């Protein structure tokens, strides 16, 4: 009996460690250090020049909202308005241990190159948003949906919207795709998102620690439910995609091993219809934009124009 109790305590402790390691990595310092993020993103000269041009006229703005569910965290986003009142609006969602600032090269593509409105949120526990852990896209989807709800107050009532995300941001996009969204949301773009939090953590457990899923994944999942109120298994992009009716563009690099390229087939198959895909040759995780910058912009723009053509 004592042995069983000791084993259970060890297993629970290991699960507690895993949730902290995965959902509060290093205090998420890189994502919350905005000065570091600005310095890092400005290494891309085209993005730096765009940011300077925005700042010179006060065009890069930010705003806060308070999330609907308790605790009442403040959530932050950057935004840039287009010169045309009829322009489409793109919501750009960042990835794991990143923040909205890291998505500024993508925001530049949508704003400077394509002429769209852009809103770039900081997900919880990132950038200037409150929060006590990384939500891996599952409850982030609810926060992004709240941002979507207030877009007309920022950009005007006659808007049409596309949502774009990379990595965990892509998982967020797929996870919100199965929810009821406002009629002005017209298209979704996911770039290298995972099938589920369970599947991604299971893969990382094997890759990083050479451990099987039992028992650690199960105890960690229990700890996550107890501490944060959500489940690795429930956080499932595949199940949400099965309910999705909006047009979606799937992008994944064929050399991606962090979020395995093999996940793309399962994700794409789960979406019943209105789907497009780009298997980017030899691109590693979140590398497609950087490896094929011109083609990335062309493909994304064509997809958006096909589904939001009336407001361009």
TrEMBL record:
Domain AB hydrolase-1: 89-213
InterPro entries assigned: AB_hydrolase_1, AB_hydrolase_fold, DNA-binding_regulatory
Keyword Hydrolase: yes
Gene Ontology MF term list: hydrolase activity
Entry keyword Kinase: no
Keyword list, A-Z: Hydrolase
This protein's name: Alpha/beta hydrolase
Gene source species: Pseudoprevotella muciniphila
């Amino acid at each position: 009996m004592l042995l069983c109790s000791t084993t259970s305590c060890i297993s629970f402790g290991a699960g507690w460690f895993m949730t902290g390691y995965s959902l509060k990595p290093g205090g998420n310092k890189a994502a919350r250090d905005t000065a570091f993020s600005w310095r890092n993103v400005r290494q891309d000269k085209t993005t730096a020049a765009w940011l300077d041009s925005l700042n010179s006229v006060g065009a890069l703005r930010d705003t806060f909202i308070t999330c609907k569910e308790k605790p009442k965290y403040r959530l932050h986003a950057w935004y840039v308005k287009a010169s045309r009142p009829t322009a489409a609006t793109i919501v750009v969602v960042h990835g794991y241990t990143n923040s909205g600032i890291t998505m500024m090269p993508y925001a530049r593509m949508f704003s400077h190159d394509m002429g769209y409105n852009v809103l770039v949120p900081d997900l919880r526990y990132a950038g200037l948003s409150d929060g006590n852990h990384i939500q891996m896209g599952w409850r982030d989807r609810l926060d992004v949906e709240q941002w979507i709800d207030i877009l007309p107050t920022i950009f005007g009532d006659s808007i049409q919207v596309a949502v774009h995300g990379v990595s965990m941001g892509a998982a967020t996009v797929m996870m919100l795709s199965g929810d009821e969204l406002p009629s002005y949301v017209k298209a979704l773009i996911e770039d290298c998102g995972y099938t589920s939090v369970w599947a991604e953590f299971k893969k990382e457990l094997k890759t990083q620690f050479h451990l099987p899923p039992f028992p650690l994944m199960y105890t960690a999942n229990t700890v996550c439910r107890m501490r944060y109120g959500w489940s690795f298994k429930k956080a499932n992009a595949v199940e949400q995609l099965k309910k999705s009716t909006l047009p979606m563009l799937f992008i994944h690099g064929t050399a991606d091993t962090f979020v395995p390229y093999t996940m793309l087939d399962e994700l794409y198959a789960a979406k019943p219809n209105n789907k497009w895909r780009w298997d980017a040759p030899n691109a590693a995780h979140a590398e497609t934009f950087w490896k094929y910058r011109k083609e990335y912009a062309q493909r994304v723009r064509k997809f958006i124009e096909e589904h939001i053509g009336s407001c361009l």
